């Protein structure tokens, strides 16, 4: 049970922390697998009986540790024997709970190593780079699922590709979005059209600040200010208790001794990812980076879609792989031909008045 105010997109790290922390007392040599929702599986029963047990898990956070409560209760035994009998005999229904448990076991390690998107997993570009423009890039990944077939279980794997936002300083992201080759070529504040265009692209993205040392707090962007950092003000409470209006540029100069290099450009209005607090302005330069691993759900432009197709339309070149050659394996370039059959034509009754053959529709 996670605190409701902490809307975790991926609670798996919390469960992994729990397993490691309570390994001596509860989990021992077991390697539990977690489905990312409400089910956790172990090969042998945990020494907790049939009652619910609550675990308090503390995870180091950005400036403050975060505390979660995880509750575990024994539910049922999943039988591999019943799954085997169903596959071999073909006479009894395949137990879906066994298929689900096997699928979770096959996906668990991938969910910890890679960035999950739906039922697919993606990894950052390493050894390849396919920029799409506009601060986006191609990430390759794979989809896998376990399915019962004829007399055994089959692992279905398919490669996939999608667009992610490139992890980079926000200033560079803005330049890519607005097609600015050199930020020094932008000596004036953004025009309204530039600001609107940039806002549409960055709104909803997560950014992390870099001006607090190792404490890189993460925020979600909710807007871009109309006024530049040199004129954007906010109420600042002094030590005396008095509240004064202070510009963002002045605040960073006084608080962090940081002179903004581009005070004529706007700020980001952000809100905390983990706490419901009012939005606050932050400068978008020197102190903000785009957080890695954010999938782009916005529609690709025509040029980006074309680049995506070119990036994925590559020959696998298995026979050039030195590791495959080492084992004397060869892969045919030709597609496999299989024998099919043509189904008989079927009919359609329209309003009970006419019988039509599908072949004439």
TrEMBL record:
Limits of the PAZ domain: 169-286
Keyword terms, alphabetized: Ribonucleoprotein, RNA-binding, RNA-mediated gene silencing
Family: Belongs to the argonaute family. Ago subfamily.
GO BP annotations listed: regulatory ncRNA-mediated gene silencing
Source organism, top-level taxon: Eukaryota
GO cellular component: P-body; RISC complex
Native species: Naja naja
UniProt-annotated location(s): Cytoplasm, P-body
Name of the protein: Argonaute RISC component 1
InterPro entries per record: ArgoL1, ArgoL2, Argonaute_N, PAZ_dom, PAZ_dom_sf
Gene3D superfamilies: paz domain
A molecular function (GO) term: RNA binding
Keyword Ion transport carried by entry: no
């Amino acid at each position: 049970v996670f605190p409701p105010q902490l809307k975790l997109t991926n609670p798996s790290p919390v469960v992994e922390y729990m397993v490691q922390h309570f390994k001596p007392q509860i989990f021992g040599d077991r390697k539990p697998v977690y489905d990312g929702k409400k089910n956790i599986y172990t090969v042998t029963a945990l020494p907790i009986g049939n009652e619910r047990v609550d675990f308090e898990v503390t995870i180091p956070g950005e400036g403050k540790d975060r505390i979660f409560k995880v509750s575990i209760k024994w539910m049922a035994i999943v039988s591999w024997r019943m799954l085997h009998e169903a596959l071999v005999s073909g006479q009894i229904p395949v137990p879906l709970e066994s298929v689900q448990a096997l699928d979770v076991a096959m996906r668990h390690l991938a969910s910890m190593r890679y960035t999950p998107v739906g039922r697919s997993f993606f990894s950052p570009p390493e050894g390849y780079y396919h920029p799409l423009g506009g601060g986006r890039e191609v990430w390759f990944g794979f989809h896998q699922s376990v399915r019962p077939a004829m007399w055994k279980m089959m692992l279905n794997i398919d490669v996939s590709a999608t667009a992610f936002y490139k992890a980079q300083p926000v200033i560079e992201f803005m330049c890519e979005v607005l097609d600015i080759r050199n930020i020094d070529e932008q000596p004036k504040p953004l025009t309204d059209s530039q600001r609107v265009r940039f806002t549409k692209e960055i709104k909803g993205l997560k950014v992390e600040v870099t001006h607090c040392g190792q404490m890189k707090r993460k925020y979600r962007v909710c807007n871009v200010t109309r006024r530049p950092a040199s004129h954007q003000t906010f109420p600042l409470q002094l030590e005396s208790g008095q509240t004064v209006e202070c510009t963002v540029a002045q605040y960073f100069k006084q608080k962090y001794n940081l002179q903004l290099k581009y005070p004529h450009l706007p700020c980001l209005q952000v809100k905390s990812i983990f706490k419901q607090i009012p939005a606050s302005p932050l400068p978008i330069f020197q102190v903000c980076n785009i957080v890695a691993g954010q999938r782009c759900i916005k529609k690709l432009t025509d040029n980006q879609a074309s680049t995506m197709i070119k990036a994925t339309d590559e020959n696998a070149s298995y026979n050039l792989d030195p590791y495959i050659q080492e084992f004397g394996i060869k892969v045919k370039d030709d597609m496999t031909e299989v024998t099919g059959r043509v189904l008989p034509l079927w009919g359609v009754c329209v309003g009970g008045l006419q019988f039509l053959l599908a072949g004439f529709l």
